[in-house]
Amino acid sequence: ARARAIISTLETTTRELAAKKTELTLSITTLNRYEKVLDIIHPLEKELPTLEGFEVTILLIQEEHREVLELIKKELDTITGNRFEMIATTVDADTLAAIMVFPKKYSEEIHAFIYSVNVNEVRLPKEYTGRPFYEMYALIEEERLHTQEEIARIDAELLALANSWYQELVVLKNRLSLIHAEVNMYRNFGVSEYMFVIMGWIPKKYLGRTRMMIHDRFSDRVIVHEIPVTEKDMENAPVYYNNPPWVKPFELIMQLVAPPRYFEVDPTPILAIFFPLFFGLMVGDIGYGLVILAFALVIRHRFQAIGFAKNLANILIISSIPAIIFGYLFGEFFGDLGETLGWIHPVQVLGITWNRVDAMIPMLILAITIGVIHVFLGLFIGIRNAIITKKRKHLYEKTGMLLVITAIIVLVAMLAKVVPAFSVYPAVVLIVIGLPLILMGAGVFGTIEVMSTVGNILSYSRLMAIGMASVILAMVANRLSGAFAFAIIGIIVALLLHALNVALAMFSPSIHAVRLHLVEFFSKFYEGGGMPYKPFKREVP
Fold first, then answer.
1. Domains (ranges, CATH) in the chain?
2. What is the pTM of this model?
3. Which of 98, 109, 266, 344 gives 338 a disulfide partner, CB atoms 3.0 to 4.6 angstroms apart?
4. What is the sign of the dihedral through the CA atoms of 166, 171, 174 and 176?
5. 61-116 confidence digits (pLDDT tens)
6. Alpha helix segments (H runs only) across 332-423
7. Tell me: the pLDDT tens digits for 198-250?
């Protein structure tokens, strides 16, 4: 009722104002066109008085139809017996103007022909005819200014109406849109004169609560009934992430790929474990970890209402903890500053002092070992998915890949004299069993995938390389702090470099940790293509 009342008040007024503004805008366009026409014929002003008994006509033709000029010339030649003149000039990039001078006695016949070929003929209004050119220019300018003033008045009137009614109109529109959406929803239900049926999916954990709330609201008038579903039905079931609070933020990263299918393993909990581990290993600095933690806490506090920013901040908060722990193991506090000041020293583990600059080879071995564990975990999950979904070829491929990669690792370890020489025999057995399985599951291209998987494992060396780049940049900043004659300059330079390194430490390790999961890890088991669970609910603006 309120919407109808407002419409009856505003619709006529706004429609009239809008129509008037459109008319005035077209009027300005026409005036601009007249001005262009005057510019074209102005050079002929001195000759026009001598052309008594002749008529001057101007045609506007689109550039793409230039060839019509020849047709017009031929017809004018026929009508006038070659007693005419015609010149063409460019008005703008899209338009040509043709000026014709011919005896007035042929006027009616020529205008009829021009009309028949659908060419735009320009005729100045009566108030312009017979006037000198300077008066016509002044008349056009005066009318254009008056029209612009009228448009400005209409705009001011429309703005006043908007200021008075806009907020209420927006609220009414949103409310009416909701009512419209609700009414349209009946198309999705089974409805008869006395009953209705709504069928859909609901997460199992919420079924009891839903049943109870509907009973509290409608008593026995609405019945919730769980329909038995087959395994085939479940293949089309929507996907609902059911993760604990510390895993929830990492669902943000899962938005980079399609949701998993219903029977697939949800990799978000694995992502929530390995992502902070990779991030911490690459950053590995107590000082940087503390700065990232403080920054993330501020972002979460300031942008609590923005889901994306909140989840991103929570990921950084969780990931900063391993960064601080690894910083303690590596003896790093803003690079080697803590060690230089005697506050902290690298920890010794397995007889190795874990100073990242001195322990490059152990760091590389650690990174590759983590890669082996991560990729093997992906293959095990791939085997599990293949068993659940009953895909034999995938089962053969993943099992064969696992056996062959294990054999390659054993052979590499034997060459490095880490395992005894007789290890070659079980390695050969694994290859003999694994290769046929790969061929059965993925064909010849599956054997190529073996080398690709080895490359995936070696790709984890970036955990060492990026961390090494970070600590070297931190050490450069510390050295530069004492390299200037004025200490304050050195301190400022060092602070700027450390600030840059912190920014890189938040960005680069995050990108590479995501890449290691999406490319190296997910490729071993993840198919995706699931349908996300979207509850039936009213969308609140």
1. 2-141 (3.30.70.2750), 248-524 (no CATH)
2. 0.68
3. 344
4. negative
5. 777 778 888 888 888 888 888 888 888 877 677 777 787 888 888 888 888 888 88
6. 337-340, 360-389, 392-415
7. 988 999 889 999 999 999 999 989 999 999 988 888 888 999 888 899 999 99
